[in-house]
Records
---
Amino acid sequence: MKIPDSILEKATIIMTSAGLRRAVIAADTLYVFEKEDSTSARRVKVDFYNDKGQYQSTLTADRGLVRQKQEAFSAWGDVVVKNDSARLESQSLNWDTKRSLITTDDFVRFERRDDVIMGYGLEADSKLENVRILRNVQGRMSNLPSTEKGLDSLEGDKSGGQAP
């Protein structure tokens, strides 16, 4: 087992990209391994921001791993991402700042308004507007369009997001 360079309690990391705040990571305990560009977090909360520095969503998890040079973050254990209109649950998630993308191969449960969609694998933006569940998709959706043209319009709908 490697010994960390630093151990910080009740600490915060601010991740930036091109000078803009992209995430604020707060944890009960941080274990910093400087040579590996690796910071392990326990009981973590992350506020995500878009490329204009505007708040998008909040993640909570049991554990996390920050790679500041790669501008990436991974979380494990009862992971929840939520904002004022959506909620995402999984056992693990990865966040790539450069691509503004949340991903996982694990089981996910996604809720937005009265819709609940579940499946395996996910790609989503940090605001949870554009969500794609990749395999074994099932769930309950309300207010589906009744025509094929209406269903096709879901894919291009930027005001309410894409259908998962």
---
Amino acid sequence: MDEHYFSANELAKKFNVSKSTVIKWIHEKKLKAIKLGDIWRIPESAVQKFIVTNTNGDDKDEGDSK
């Protein structure tokens, strides 16, 4: 069971942000990553968790009460 790993550049393109923003998320511990030499690798499972954690309103019905 091999997991796919993204580079910081790949995630920057995927989320339409700069590479430095991805590195900032890693340093802020918002996004789990592994550093191999000078290159950060982010497991797909960490990306999925990051998306769920940083998505507004997905788990709540607050929008329906207005």
---
Amino acid sequence: MATAGWEDGGLGWVWRRRLLAWEAESVRECVGLLNNFVLEDNIQDHWRWLLDPVHGYTVKGTYRFLTIIDDRVADITGIDVWHNLVPSKVSLFAWLLLQDRIPTKANLVHRHVIRPPDNLCVGGCGFTETMDHLFIACDFFGSTWYLICLWLGVSCAFSGSVKDHFSQFTHLAGLPRQSHLYLKIIWLACVWTIWKERNNCVFKNVVLDPLSIVEKVKLNSFLWLSSNVVPLLFGLHDWWRYPLSCMGIM
């Protein structure tokens, strides 16, 4: 495959049939990952067990990893990011996000993947790219939540913690219980889109635009809601302009 060319547009990505939309998206993600790898003829490939690089895989070590509960995992047991309207990969991403297990630059430094000087946020704010900073505190990406609140017609002062932010946003004070499902889907669409745009900036040098992020959040949340068996009583135009009315809040 590497010989045929695994770069974007290379012959290693020729398929017998036309790819579905979700398949094409997965291929683009794979291409972005492989762009960082360089094969060398004089180096032999080998398997490496990341949980124990020295001794390798053992049943005992794996059992210990699966049975010892991390404090961060215990903290989020009451947080539900799963819903059948949301793609499973998005819910899985949110679950990893709330455990601080996604590959932010701070985590990559901790795993010795990149050097400490390379840990700055891609938003250009000059701070270390931690989970809480990237999704909440960053001047660039954090402004997405302000724009989302403008779209919803609500005002709120959010916590600087991603976990607290999830609980606060999905249960906004003053809004009835019937809005919680919609707000959860909007939150999931927002963190997913922020992460995708962050990766596009890192791997493809795409110019970031908060307004574009919000537009994608609106579209993704509507598409996920419309995947329900029961048809929606509102259209995309209504969702774009009157989201609270679409939630049944007058």
---
Amino acid sequence: MAFVISWTKALNTDNLHHVYSAACSEKTIMHSLTKFIIATAFLTTSINAVAIEKPKYDVLHADDKIEYRLYEGYVVAETTVTDKNSYGQAATSGFMRLFDYISGENVSKSAIDMTAPVQQTPLTELEGEKIAMTSPVQQSKNDLGWSVAFMLPSKFNIDTAPIPSNENISLREIPPRLMAVIRYSGRWTQTNFDEQSALLKSAIQKQGIEIISAAESAVYNPPFMPPFMRRNEVMFEVGGHPGDNLSTIENK
């Protein structure tokens, strides 16, 4: 399942108070702790599995640390987190909500295989920009919250995917799209996200390529993976790539 979020920092032991700050009883705390342990164990097993599914893509152009990837379409389970103040808190809240969904909290009570990565996107002005889909979107500051998403296994389409029981989770089709991606290791923090987003955005703009979406983050590893071994990515949807004489993905 794809992880577009900064759950790596959020799930560290030192930050568990973010998960349990809303708990008001020992029973609630123990229930949350049990879910957290199960989710972490599930993640470890799934992420280390040889056959774990990830989004399919072709690399159309590579330039130093940046790749321009044409992704195939897929379906995501998505939730919006608006009551948290940081990447970590939003990541934890969104991840646990989606983990419940793939663990059977859906109408058919089906268990769904985990995929990688987990994806997270700042909402900022995304809602207004989604209508036009032509203008660059500011991705740094945001007051509206975060979108957190899991990619569903490719055996599902929008009609066959289990329907969420939680009204805060929705299913959405992601169409084929061209993404400029920068990959890096290290901790998943606001600082790293901002730095990598700025580097990627600058490189894209120097090529005169149109940025279509807000910055998205993709996290592939569990929080206890040594930072230097982690695979983290930041990406923008773009209208072309440096090796392409055409200006838009529709003309490819």
